[in-house]
TrEMBL record:
Top-level division of the source organism's lineage: Bacteria
Protein name in UniProt: ClC family H(+)/Cl(-) exchange transporter
Main location: membrane
Signal sequence residues: none
Gene Ontology MF terms: chloride channel activity; monoatomic cation transmembrane transporter activity
The keyword Electron transport appears for this protein: no
Length: 523
């Protein structure tokens, strides 16, 4: 790597002002917001149509065969779309993670079109899939498209992808801070202050666009929430244990369902989605409450006085239907389905406690909310995002302590049971199938950033004293608000952000080195 190469790349890296990138993040947030608003309106309309249709079929059962033909047609459409563009299958969040770590690539405009219409068809058929995964991937595709159209560097492109992903989740749930935290905690895996600012700008703009269509109100409007007394906090620990165990079960069954679909070798892959759509027809006719992502189901669990027996039936059907729906590779997420399963779990737990006279029934809604957050934390392994997401979605900021306890316990339980984040496992399955594999360029140079932990092996050492990996150059150190040009005698401090210039085909090797030397703190 010559000095001229380094200077050229660094010039491109530092040339853009922060203000310019903020403006560009605003554009990405605005475009993403518009697309997600249209997406939300579309899936709300088609789900409403689907529910009305099943009510109509109860009165006119002779139309069931005709609707079954349409369900088969929907399955064929999804199979064809996924076959043509595999990157639109499933949630989309694992794909975005894969792109950011340079293991996958996608055609941004194909993903926007395919994910949008594929998810709408899935909801029209009644599948138990959420809007958040497609929203995140559509936003990421908008960011990638912006970078490509503006002919920006790969580094800038990945920054824009993070901004778009953050904006997508923010617009999907009217939750800008949850969108920001999810993008940093789960997708980008980097808490760089600059990235945080740019992603926050995109999230706020997207949320502003969404609020102009859906109003300044949380996604779930729970009234008359009363804080749980401190002497009842022991029930939160038990709830955290329950949601932690159920979250591990959710991950295992979800992955097992995908394997089961792949074992149906006597059915061509592009025909397998038909199975999920036909099952959706049976479920919709017998128990329509579990159709779709689960937004209406969560509201009904809070407002209706379901018996424990009915709640258990809803829980079992929603759980299994979600597995079947997601395993079919139909575009759609698992956020809303898992939140609805968590809400049902919390309702069953709360009603059981009231029967035993442990708590008053006025606290059941609290437990429903807490269970949603705990379930999310156990499955996604992103507790901070789970806490912020539930707080923003419910509009209740007086239960942070309660929600945090449940999320922490659920996270610890899932960790004890050796459960890994669901999106990491899903990404590994995608990579094992060699779908959308990223084509690395041998001579391409990229910039990596990494923070030095307290107690790491290179803390308080001079740059010349460290044995760096081959083809790696330390080009800058960010310390507080300063940017330091490194020399051989420059000492590295804990908290420094190292900016490294590396060959693109050596990224995996360098990242592994970073984990051991920079991020691997001594305990």
């Amino acid at each position: 790597m010559s000095n001229n190469d380094a200077k050229s790349i660094l010039h491109n890296y530092w040339s853009l002002s922060h203000f310019k990138i903020i403006v560009e993040s605003t554009v990405i947030g605005f475009v993403t917001g518009i697309l997600i608003v249209l997406f939300r309106l579309a899936i709300e309309k088609v789900l409403q149509f689907s529910l009305c249709l099943y009510s109509f079929l109860h009165i006119h059962p002779w139309l069931i065969p005709i609707w079954s033909v349409f369900l088969i047609l929907f399955g064929l459409i999804i199979g064809f779309m996924v076959q043509k563009e595999p990157m639109i299958a499933g949630s989309g969040i694992p794909q975005v993670k894969g792109i950011l770590i340079r293991r996958l690539e996608m055609s941004w405009w194909k993903v926007i079109i395919g994910k949008f219409f594929g998810a709408v068809v899935g909801i029209l058929g009644g599948l138990s899939l959420g809007r958040e995964g497609p929203s995140v991937q559509i936003g990421a595709a908008v960011g990638q498209g912006f970078g490509k159209l503006m002919k920006r560097s790969k580094l800038d492109e990945r920054l824009f992808i993070t901004c778009g992903a953050s904006a997508g989740l923010a617009a999907a749930f009217n939750a800008p801070f949850a969108g920001l935290m999810f993008a940093l905690e789960e997708i980008h895996k980097n808490f760089s202050p600059l990235i945080m600012v740019y992603a926050l700008v995109a999230s706020i703009v997207a949320d502003f666009v969404s609020a102009n269509f859906f109003g300044l109100r949380p996604v779930f409007r729970f009234k008359d929430l009363i804080s749980l007394p401190l002497d009842k906090y022991f029930v939160l620990i038990i709830l955290g244990i329950i949601t932690g165990i159920f979250g591990v079960l959710f991950n295992k069954v979800l992955l097992a369902t995908q394997k089961a679909y792949q074992k149906l070798i006597f059915i061509p892959a592009n025909l397998r989605p038909i199975i999920a759509f036909l099952i959706a027809g049976l479920v919709g006719y017998s128990l329509p409450d579990v159709l779709g992502g689960g937004h209406d189901l969560i509201s009904k669990v809070v407002t209706r006085n379901y018996s424990i027996r009915m709640l258990i039936i809803l829980l079992m059907v929603k759980f299994l239907f979600t597995m079947i729906s997601y395993g079919s590779s139909t575009p759609g997420g698992i956020f809303l389905p898992l939140l609805s399963i968590g809400a049902l779990t919390g309702a069953i737990y709360g009603k059981s406690l009231t029967i035993l006279s442990i708590i008053d029934k006025q606290y059941i809604t609290n437990l429903i909310i807490f269970a949603m957050a705990g379930y999310f934390s156990a499955i996604v392994k992103a507790p901070v995002t789970g806490i912020i997401l539930i707080v923003e979605m419910t509009g209740s900021f007086s239960h942070l302590l309660s929600v945090s306890i449940v999320c922490l316990v659920a996270y610890i339980i899932s960790d004890i049971l050796n459960s890994r984040p669901i999106y990491e496992q899903l990404l590994e399955r995608i990579l094992s199938r060699n779908v959308g594999v990223y084509k690395k360029q041998q001579d391409s140079k990229i910039v990596l950033e990494s923070f030095v932990c307290v107690g790491s092996q290179i803390e308080n050492k001079k740059i010349k004293e460290i044995k760096w990996t081959e083809n790696t150059l330390v080009v800058a150190i960010r310390r507080g608000g300063r940017e330091i040009i490194p020399r051989g005698n420059t000492e590295i401090w804990a908290g420094d952000c190292l900016v490294l210039l590396v060959n693109e085909n050596k990224v995996a090797e360098v990242k592994k080195w970073l984990e051991n030397m920079i991020e691997g703190c001594k305990m």
